[in-house]
Amino acid sequence: MIETDKPAFARLMVGLGEYYGKDQSKQVLSIYWKALEQYDLDAVDAACRAHISNPDSGQWFPKIADLVRLIDGGTNDRALLAWTKVDQAVRRIGTFQSVCFDDGLIHVALQDMGGWQAFGNKTEDEWPFIAKEFQQRYRALAARPVQPPHVPMLIGGADAHNARLGYAPCAPVMVGDPERARLVYEGGSNVRSIAFTGMGQAAAKLGKLPAAEERAA
Asked: Which of 56, 72, 100, 144 is the most exposed place for a label (fewest CB within 10 A)?
C-alpha cells in the first residue's frame, strides 16, 4: 500500500472492528498498517473478507498473522501478475527503452537475472524457462520481511548507449499503475542487492592489508 491508501485502510479496519465489536485505536491501526503496508490494499481487503467467511476462525477479529497467512497464500498470483507485466513490457515496449515498473520487486528480480537489456536477447523457446525463473525469484523476494533495495529504473539499450557517450538517460516508460511506478522510481537507489568488494577496498576499510599482500610487500 502507499500513503494515499491510509484513509481507505483505516475505514476498512474500523469497519472490521465494528463488525466484531472491537474499537480500533490509532495505535492499533498504526501497528496493522506497518505490518501490512507491503501488500496491496485490494489484497488486504480480500484477506479480511476471506477471514470473515472462514467457518473455523471467522468468529474472532483477525490478527495480523491471520491476514498475512491469507495474503501470502496468493503469492503465486502476485508472481504471475508481476510476470505478466514483464512479458507485456518486453513485447510491447521492448528492451531498447528504459522502463520503471509499479513494483520494486520486479526491478530486483530482473536485475538479478541479468538486467532489462538481457531480456531482449531471449528466444521464444527460452521464454517459458525465463518465466519460471522470474516467478521463483519474485516469490522468494516477496517472502522476505524487508523489501531489498531496487534501482529507480531498468536501463534500456538506448540509454546504455547514450550513457557511454556521456548523455543523461531519458525518462523511463512507466509500466502498470503510474502513481505506484512514480513512487518506485523516487524510492529507488543504485545500491546493488549483492555487494562486491575488492581485497584492496576491504583492506582499506579494515585499516590493514591481507596477509598475502603483506608477504608480497
From this structure: 56
